[in-house]
């Protein structure tokens, strides 16, 4: 994606693990937007704590321009730096390192990622802030909110650590047994990883403790809408997501690395426009060809939808291999394109269901034609992530019928609920978009889309308004359903919007 040349400087994020980091995506997109993708490239490197000293030697030897630090290096890196900016020293944590002529200076931009979004909606002076957690992010929050005149109460699992933080920045520390008191706070800030992928059902506070006049801010940004934020939203509270923090801190970091300003709203636009998850449908018969398609496109698509019934000489070894190699990037489908009779026997499908257990891959099952598989999964308690879907290739049923279908789908507790119906008019498309908003309002992960010409609009706005993923072929001839736009077409449209 970048215009790398001999003069390109390297910036990178380090962490352990680091694979999940969205920093490379955000910075590279911003380089491109500002036309400096020939000057900078941003990569990720998994660095173990015991290797930090060697890593720093490498940074100097290779003249790496900037380092973003994530867990567990924010504190550990400090002793290897030539200097640390005053604020980062007070916070005691560095998330940004800049290399100026071989001298490494550490900064902290996390605190601005917390304060700036808050100050956009309220003044912090004399507000009461309930901070959950006492780690690196909590330190940045404690520094920021007390600097702005707020009163701090820290709730932490280890009370001693909370008390130490309260002593340093002023305020009181309570244990998680006293969480009840959080009801009195003006602002709640979660600085624990509770609710972070893959533990998306966790939350640091029970829903009943959230009140409608509070501001609830979650540092967790994968997923961007956590259970805590969904609970806060349904309690009527104002919410700020970890994505806001991530973008704000990233914009400051960007300036430190490049010397160039990228306005936060521009950074946000760039980032959010490219945050859609794209899924490449693969209806091929050749096993080698399928593996090659996935490998060739692994950086361009978040998911690959593999239609098993189309594969010639399908065997257990191939499926195991596929699952092992591509895990949570896979969506497995047992179906024909228009729900015709399958070739793959029920016994074989059951075997595959067990192969998928605990794999992280998703299995898409149709609520009408694949009830047998769904019942088996439920009855035997198979631990498998599912997309439970409803397909209607002829029409979009009325609202009442669709709501009934959704209620039936919910009984199978899917990871993602999917409704795909043929739109015979623009009215059908609008009905589906309204349905999508209604499902999102209830905090369900979903894909709601219309098939056919009239459904095209749902593929664009569905993607922007919260569909978990967008099915998109590389070219028109490889679509898995009528009305799919290609990835190029979608990206062009998102670029204009
Ligand atoms: N949005 C952004 O830009 C951004 C930036 C930085 C960090 N973050 C996110 O912020 C979160 C915290 O990161 P960090 O660097 O501050 O981590 P950290 O230094 O490891 O601190 C984690 C804190 O969470 C508490 N905690 C961990 N597991 C817990 C559990 N099961 N129950 C209760 N408390 C628990 C710990 O309590 P103890 O003290 O008792 O161990 C500790 O206080 C992470 O999810 C990270 O991804 C987001």
Tell me what the structure shows.
The protein has 497 residues and is an alpha/beta fold. The chain has 3 domains: 9-108 and 257-269, Leucine Dehydrogenase, chain A, domain 1 (Rossmann fold); 111-240, NAD(P)-binding Rossmann-like Domain (Rossmann fold); 278-496, Alpha-Beta Barrel (TIM Barrel), CATH 3.20.20. The chain is 39% helix and 20% strand. The chain has 18 helices and 20 strands. It has helices at 23-33, 52-62, 73-76, 86-91, 110-121, 136-147, 159-169, 227-234, 242-258, 264-273, 287-297, 316-326, 346-356, 371-380, 399-410, 426-441, 456-464, 487-496; strands spanning 9-15, 40-46, 66-69, 83-84, 96-100, 103-107, 128-132, 151-156, 172-175, 187-190, 215-218, 238-240, 278-282, 303-307, 330-333, 362-366, 385-392, 416-422, 446-451, 470-471. The strands form 3 sheets. The protein has an 8-stranded parallel beta sheet. It has a 6-stranded mixed beta sheet with strand order 2-1-3-5-6-4. The chain has a 6-stranded parallel beta sheet with strand order 9-8-7-10-11-12, with helices on both faces. Strand 8, helix 7 (159-169) and strand 9 form a beta-alpha-beta unit. Helix 5 crosses helix 9 (242-258), helix 9 (242-258) packs across helix 10 and helix 16 (426-441) packs parallel to helix 17. The radius of gyration is 24 Å and the shape is globular. The protein starts with 8 loop residues before the first strand and ends with a helix. The mean pLDDT is 93. It binds NADP nicotinamide-adenine-dinucleotide phosphate. NADP nicotinamide-adenine-dinucleotide phosphate binds next to helix 5, helix 6 and helix 9.
